Amino acid sequence: VVPRQPVNLLAGEQRAPEFLRRNPFGAVPILELDDGVVIPESLAIIEYFEEQYPQPPLLGTELQGRALIRAWERRCELGVVL
After folding, report:
1. How far, in Å, CA of 40 to CA of 11, rounded?
2. CA distances from 61 to 26, 57, 65, 66 (A)
3. Helices (H) and strands (E) in the chain, counts
């Protein structure tokens, strides 16, 4: 189980000094590991979990499915969601 800490974007908590120390870009989500390493960005976090805990697979088991998941993630990142 990964502990979660909600960040109130409407209140600007992502711009608070304590959050900016973890991610200077002030973006969510982030994953902070036990050793203090901070992994930003959804796809990087998903890929970390995929490698660290391969079962069940988060990105699918087939090449085509994994590619489509990454394509949709990229669309969301660029703000071109239909």
Report:
1. 20
2. 33, 7, 7, 7
3. 3, 2
pLDDT tens per residue across span 22-58: 999 999 999 999 999 999 988 899 889 999 998 988 8
Which residues are paired to 39 by β-bridges? 31
pTM for this one? 0.76
Phi and psi, residue 71, nearest 5°: -65, -45
User: In the structure encoding, which two tokens stand for residue 65, read together?
Assistant: 């499915």
Which of 1.20.140.150, 3.40.30.10, 1.20.1560.10, 3.30.390.30 is the CATH number of 13-78?
A: 3.40.30.10
* Sequence-distant (≥ 6) Cβ neighbours of residue 29 within 8 angstroms: 40, 41, 42, 45
Strands (E), the chain: 30-32, 38-40
